[in-house]
Amino acid sequence: MLYDKEHANDVAIIGKTSKFEGTEVHYDNDGWNVLITEDPTSLLFWFDFYETDTSAIGRFSVPAIG
To answer: Is the pTM of this model over 0.70?
Structure first.
């Protein structure tokens, strides 16, 4: 997660199950994931654009790319 005010200045374990240990996420004093500034290329996220039929960005939509 990019932001979690409940874990500000803390470490949270994300995705812990009986089979997997989970991933540690470190948050700064404001609740932001420290990877945003330390290593943004390691973050996994994507953007979805809706109603792109009439805009130039429509050429990058999922149906257009495949």
So the answer is: no
Q: What is the pLDDT of residues 4-41, one digit of tens each?
A: 999 999 999 888 777 778 888 999 999 999 998 899 88
* 33 residue type, one letter: N
Please report where in the chains the tokens 């999922």 appear, as a residue: 62
Q: 35 to each of 1, 32, 55, how far by Cα in Å?
A: 10, 9, 32
Provide the token pair at 66: 């495949």
Beta strand 23-26 with 11-14: parallel, antiparallel or unpaired? antiparallel
Separation in Å, CA 59 to CA 13, 45, 47, 50, 64: 38, 20, 14, 12, 6
